[in-house]
Write a structure and sequence with these properties.
Length: 396
């Protein structure tokens, strides 16, 4: 059989969207889907948001790309706003989350190199994490399904169980550069870190002169109910990778760092042809305009509480399928007693409901952050109906 023009690395489903309207996608056959997947936590303003659409249109007609050989008034302005609203002192813009994590890894290693400890190059990572699909980021995971066939992988990573502070501490040695961790594991099953774990990693980093590197690609940018998830833990990282929601659908990521952590990132140490181009910066500014507007985070938290409450009320009606609700903000997961991937397909194909499966048999619920009560009502109705009509395989 001949290979397809699109390299066949995705098991694509039958949904073929051609248009989006707010919290809905419309397929090429005209069917409407309630989109509680948001492009896997990317479309935080939904589809066709007027602020984002106008910003991209205006910038595309003005200046799209010039390269980083020249000064970037657009990048400087956006970076300044991120610095003003986060722990960071400096920002590097990327095209994706994996590139943001790559930059974070390089920043951490380079810090120890320039401070006289080049042997400190190992990042302690956590089992069932997901940091991207580059050789560097799959090396930072312990999952065979992403690593198989790509060996030899990059050295310089160790792995502890997620949320196990003692196991992480036990891995610290003379080669340790720091910790790389998601405050909420997304692909790994919507598992928020405990307060003790994340605060403990911060304390260990301070004690041993290490860097705390956070991957907030999925849980960041208002999805957790705060601008960044680590704010709910009362700690700050040294380096943080951001993407997904930052561009609202435009390919954009960022690596944020303190001045101390980034002291090794000088001329020639890193780069990106497209990173931070004017079109991306316009998209980022537009998203930030909406996210930082008064009341936006209040709305996210209000909708989160309502959605969680509605799910918790519904679950006992289908307790043969559903177990519990987990997550933070509008990054929620419904833990199932059977195959979540199969159920996600059933809800999509038979009830027009888009969600995303995750590890540990969890259904990821990642709606646009602009949902209203009517969307929650529709979602819970469709999910309940999908549960009522779902027939698990006989071996379950």
């Amino acid at each position: 059989m001949a290979i397809t023009p699109l390299m066949p690395v995705y098991p694509r489903c039958g949904v073929r969207p051609v248009r989006g309207e707010g919290c809905y996608l419309i397929g090429e056959d005209g069917q409407r889907y309630l989109d509680f997947a948001s492009g896997i936590a990317v479309n935080l303003l939904g589809h066709g948001h007027p602020v984002l659409t106008k910003a991209i249109q205006d910038q595309a007609a003005t200046l799209m790309h010039v390269s980083n050989l020249y000064g970037s008034p657009q990048g400087e302005a956006f970076a300044q706003r991120l610095v003003d609203n986060t722990f960071a002192d400096t920002v590097f813009f990327t095209n994706s989350g994996a590139e943001a994590v790559e930059c974070a890894i390089k920043t951490a290693r380079r810090y120890h190199f320039v401070t006289g400890n080049p042997q400190r190059h190992t990042l302690i990572c956590f089992k069932n994490a997901f940091h991207g699909r580059t050789l560097g980021t799959i090396s930072a995971t312990d999952q065979d399904k992403m690593r198989g066939g790509f060996e030899p992988l990059l050295p310089g990573f160790a792995y502890a169980p997620f949320d196990d502070l003692a196991a992480a501490e036990a891995l610290i040695d003379e080669t340790t550069a720091g910790f790389l961790v998601e405050p909420v594991q997304g692909e790994g099953g919507l598992r928020p870190a405990s307060q003790e774990f994340l605060k403990g990693l911060r304390a260990l980093a301070d004690k041993h002169g290490l860097l705390l590197v956070l991957d907030e690609v999925q849980c960041g940018y208002a999805r957790s109910g705060t601008f960044f998830a680590h704010e709910q833990y009362g700690i700050t990282p040294d380096v943080m990778a951001v993407a997904k929601g930052i561009g609202g659908g435009f390919p954009l990521g960022a690596c944020l760092a303190t001045e101390k952590a980034a002291q090794g990132m000088v001329f020639g140490t890193h780069g990106s042809t497209y990173g931070g181009n004017p079109l991306a910066m316009a998209a980022g500014q537009a998203v930030l305009d909406v996210v930082l507007a008064p009341g936006f985070l209040d709305h996210v938290n209000d909708m989160s509480q309502r959605l969680r409450a509605a799910l918790e009320q519904m679950i006992p009606n289908h307790d043969h399928l559903f177990e519990s609700v987990r997550g933070l903000g509008l990054m929620l997961g419904v833990k199932m007693k059977s195959d979540s991937r199969r159920f996600v397909g059933h809800a999509r194909d038979h009830h027009g409901l888009l969600t995303v499966s995750a590890g540990d048999n969890v259904v990821r619920v990642l709606p646009p952050l602009v949902i209203e009560q009517a969307h929650i009502d529709e979602f819970v109705t469709k999910l309940s109906e999908a549960a009522r009509t779902y027939v698990p395989p006989a071996d379950e």
